[in-house]
Design brief:
The protein is α/β, with parallel strands linked by helices. About 40% of the residues lie in helices and about 15% in strands. The protein has two domains: about 160 residues, Rossmann fold (3-Layer(aba) Sandwich); about 190 residues, Glycogen Phosphorylase B (Rossmann fold).
Length: about 375
């Protein structure tokens, strides 16, 4: 029986997902978890100062080096919240301090680890490409949540007394679209709709409510329980999954006329979180909720079957996409397709099968 050391320094939802919900699927009694890194046949840790320092410890480092022990580092990139808008005073102060605390060294894997048998597990293709181009071995693994074995038809819109639009994820992504979302909720077709918010991160509810309208928001808490989340989202007509904010020079106005750095009048500037991944899209898919999203790299690749009208970059495109999704036949069709693709290509079990095969190949290389 192979022995595994697992470093649990969880401080982000994406790490929680991997260590608590994805990784246990590969054990099945075939692996023994050991508390001492020096007893392990392979090591899986998050990229945290605590676990990286354990690896760099003289005794541990020599054991890993001399025995060519495979070490998998989950989410190798660092993130720092420097957003100021839609926070309370303390949140704004912390964001300002974070801006001055930035050090490039915090955003790099220690060079000394290159001598070990290291693989970086990335949940974003851009991050994967970045580290691979810098000489690291990588393995791309999308974040996925629930096992869903059987399709359940969505509640029909005509039976929903209080229709909802669902948002799940870090609040920064929601704020990327907040102007467009307000625009949508003011349209006659969506005046009765509310946004059910499963949001985390630093934010001020009051400031978001002041902009969108308190009566338009339902603040809820996400639970890592499939049945509970199905109940919480039973009134969802569709979901919103922003990945970026786009600004276009297509419209003629004084700002664009005076832009000295433009090359063409139809340029598009995209503001995007570097490490934005497809995890929220897979979460919505597992629940069978059709969604409107951004045309980001990971999503375009993994959802290449998805209707192109539902990838949006402006408020008018959001409104157009939302009107498409209140068509009952299309909504049910998309829901069934999402669940089918998720179960056959992106469920946690599917990802862990690939990871286990990779692990076995690394162990056999020793």
């Amino acid at each position: 029986m192979k022995k595994i050391y697992i470093g649990l320094d969880i401080n982000a939802p994406s790490r929680t997902i991997f260590f608590k919900f994805q990784l246990p699927l590969i054990f099945k009694g075939n692996y023994l978890v050991v508390p001492d890194l020096n007893d392990a046949d392979f090591v899986i840790i998050p990229n945290s100062n605590n676990e990286i320092n354990k690896i760099l410890n003289y005794r541990n480092y020599n054991y890993l080096y001399n025995n060519k022990i495979p070490v998998l580092i989950i989410k190798p990139h660092f993130e720092r919240d420097i957003r100021i808008k839609y926070k309370n005073f303390l949140g704004k102060l912390k964001a300002i301090l974070n801006r001055f605390r930035f050090r490039e060294s915090l955003y790099k894997i220690p060079e000394k680890l290159r001598s070990l048998n290291i693989t970086l597990i990335c949940d974003n293709r851009r991050i994967d490409r970045f580290f691979k181009s810098n000489g690291w071995e990588t393995f791309y693994l999308p974040l996925t949540y629930f096992e869903n074995k059987k399709f359940k038809e969505l509640k029909k819109i005509k039976l929903i007394k209080s229709p909802e639009i669902v948002y799940m994820g870090e609040i920064t992504h929601f704020l990327e679209w907040i102007d467009n979302i307000k625009f949508l909720l003011e349209k006659k077709e969506f005046l009765k709709y509310k946004i059910r918010m499963f949001a985390f991160g630093s934010y001020s509810k009051q400031s978001i409510e002041a902009f969108i309208g308190k009566e338009k928001l339902i603040w809820d808490s996400f639970e890592f329980n499939y049945k509970k989340m199905l109940l919480k989202t039973e009134n969802a007509v569709f979901g919103l999954i922003p990945h970026n904010k786009s600004e276009s020079n297509y419209e003629p106005n004084l700002k664009n006329y005076l832009n000295l750095f433009s090359n063409q009048p139809n340029e598009v500037k995209i503001i995007e979180k570097y490490s934005s991944n497809s995890g929220r899209n897979h979460l919505m898919s597992s629940l069978g909720i059709p969604f409107i999203t951004s045309p980001s790299e990971n999503v375009l690749i993994e959802f290449n079957y998805y209707p192109f009208e539902l990838f949006i970059e402006s408020k008018n495109e959001l409104y157009y996409a939302a009107k498409k999704l209140i068509d009952e036949e299309l909504r049910q069709k998309i829901s069934a397709k999402l669940i089918y693709e998720y179960n056959n290509n992106f469920s946690p079990k599917y990802g862990m099968i690939k990871l286990e095969k990779y692990l076995i190949s690394k162990i056999n290389e020793k």
